[in-house]
Write a structure and sequence with these properties.
Blueprint lengths: L2 E11 L5 H11 L3 E6 L5 E8 H11 L7 E10 L7 E3 L1
Amino acid sequence: MDKCCAKALVTGKVQGVWYRRATQEQALRARITGHAINLPDGRVEVLMCGEREAVKRLAEWLWKGPEGARVTHVEFEVIETHAPDEFHVG
């Protein structure tokens, strides 16, 4: 199994619309660990670690998000990091 970690910075109407919780639900279904946290500038940072294809699918989902979200930009970076044991929101 090919694993990877990626970080995404999601811009748009992504705070106050359950974006982090919906991202966590998607990640848990795909067995992805990491986090989704609100940033002071209004973006959401998402760390995704897991099987490469699952991370790719979650990365694609980030462009849509939950109902009520309006994503205008997603910036991705593949990173080298120790994969966390769970997915949390903050």
